[in-house]
Amino acid sequence: DAGVIQSPRHEVTEMGQEVTLRCKPISGHNSLFWYRQTMMRGLELLIYFNNNVPIDDSGMPEDRFSAKMPNASFSTLKIQPSEPRDSAVYFCASSLIRGAWYGYTFGSGTRLTVV
Amino acid sequence: ILNVEQSPQSLHVQEGDSTNFTCSFPSSNFYALHWYRWETAKSPEALFVMTLNGDEKKKGRISATLNTKEGYSYLYIKGSQPEDSATYLCAFKGGSQGNLIFGKGTKLSVKP
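Output (structure tokens, whole complex):
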């Protein structure tokens, strides 16, 4: 298995531009998570999907952030318009949720820099 | 607000030293505790998933214990090696429907 695949690995964009981050979870996993990692706050959960349905988006910072999961093998996280404070590493993770028996498998992350 | 605290924030040891660090979490509504190993420029990798009070897990030189009644878990590394250098994250899951809440990690540096 190729693991959780994220693209792009690095993204540099100008303030005000739209940014789209992509994630392909592990085949057969039914839960997908988007996390943001910053020095100040560590790993923060942004949104969580179960069976392609958003379950908890309380971590999404504001309306500029949106996430979709149109099918079991693909998810996007969009920021529009982007701001310098959005600069961070964004991780996607997937898991088989049966109780809590399974760890999460993380992608390699997308390092976003907004200038 | 659920708080997951890890200590120390960073740790520097010599090769061959044994070390341990702590994860503190809410003692109520416990469901599971995860440990992850996160090497620089890579992504976090799951080490252990612990669910029962008194659980002990072991993988090679790394082991972990769990006390759900008092809300803490210890991670131990025996005979640290330079390749153990990484950030070790713990994550708490409260309730079957709860999300994983991550601590900020303990950054371990092992000098040869």
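Chain A has no helices and eleven strands.
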